[in-house]
Amino acid sequence: MKECPNLEKCKFLQNFSNEKCAEALILLYCRDDFEKCARYKIRSEGKMPPDNLWPNGEMV
Ligand code: SF4
């Protein structure tokens, strides 16, 4: 299974104190499809995404 290289340090996921919620988001965004994540794309350009940027590109 593929996994995002930013998984351990991702600030987006650290915002979720609820473990079940974070696990669901990881399954949805951070495994096989992580290359589609808006945060991952910014990180791969060498920049830091804002903390409130969701993987789907929305700012919340
Ligand atoms: S939210 Fe995006 S950048 Fe963060 S760990 Fe998941 S796939 Fe990687």
Overview of this structure, please?
The chain has 60 residues and is mostly helical. The protein has a domain at 7-44. It contains three helices and no strands. It starts with 10 loop residues before the first helix and ends in a 16-residue tail after the last helix. The relative contact order is 0.21. The mean pLDDT is 94. The protein binds iron/sulfur cluster. Residues 4, 6-7, 10, 12-13, 29-30, 34, 37, 39-40, 43, 55 line the site of iron/sulfur cluster (SF4).
Task: List the main descriptive attributes of the protein structure presented here.
binds iron/sulfur cluster, about 60 residues, 3 helices, mainly alpha
SSE map:
Elements: H1 11-14, H2 19-30, H3 38-44
Strand content: under 5%
Number of helices: 3
What is the helix fraction of residues, given as a range? 25-40%
Class derived from helix and strand content: mainly alpha
Uncertain regions: pLDDT < 50 for 5+ in a row?
Answer: none
| Gyration radius, in Å | 11 Å
The span between the termini is: 29 Å
Which series of helices and strands comes N to C? HHH
Apparent shape: globular
Bound molecules: iron/sulfur cluster
Q: Overall mean pLDDT score?
A: 94
Largest sheet: none
Q: Let me know the number of strands.
A: 0
